[in-house]
């Protein structure tokens, strides 16, 4: 069974009959060599329809009890039927928004990594 959560709250569950837990066209892209992505269409009757916030909401996807995706919403647009087309990028992309000034580093690599993260 697959589930999708937004900020820890259930958004979608495989085989759900309750409209509050339905998402359409769920398409995960789980590539080990990239950040991965997840897209889905959210009907207005979904219980978390208004909880989606671009660049703030954390989306997780689980297969049974194992997390297979974690990321953030980068695109969310409504269509003619008021359904939200949602696109999420994987958490490896979070560091793409970081800017650091050029500097000389003389410490250990682990210390630099802790500073950056």
Provide a concise account of the structure shown.
With 117 residues, the protein is mainly beta.
Q: How would you sum up this structure, described in words?
A:
The protein contains one helix and seven strands. By secondary structure, it is mainly β. It has a seven-stranded antiparallel beta sheet with strand order 2-1-5-6-7-4-3, with no helix packed on it. A hairpin with a 5-residue loop joins β6 and β7. The two termini are 33 Å apart. 17% of the residues are buried. The mean pLDDT is 91.
Provide tags for this entry.
117 residues, mainly beta, 1 helix, elongated, 7-stranded antiparallel β-sheet
Gyration radius, to the nearest Å?
17 Å
Mean pLDDT: 91
Strand content range: 35-45%
- What is the topology, as strand order, of the major beta sheet? 2-1-5-6-7-4-3
Q: How far apart are the termini?
A: 33 Å
Supply the number of helical segments. Answer: 1
- List how many beta strands DSSP finds: 7
């Amino acid at each position: 069974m697959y589930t999708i959560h937004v900020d820890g709250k259930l958004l979608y569950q495989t085989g759900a009959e309750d409209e509050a837990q339905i998402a359409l066209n769920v398409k995960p892209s789980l590539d080990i060599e990239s950040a991965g992505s997840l897209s889905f269409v959210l009907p207005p009757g979904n219980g978390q329809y208004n909880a989606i916030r671009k660049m703030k909401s954390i989306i997780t996807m689980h297969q049974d009890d194992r997390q297979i995706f974690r990321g953030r919403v980068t695109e969310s647009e409504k269509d003619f039927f008021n359904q939200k087309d949602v696109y999420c990028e994987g958490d490896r992309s979070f560091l793409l928004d970081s800017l650091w000034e050029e500097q000389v580093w003389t410490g250990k690599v682990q210390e630099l990594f802790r500073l950056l993260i």
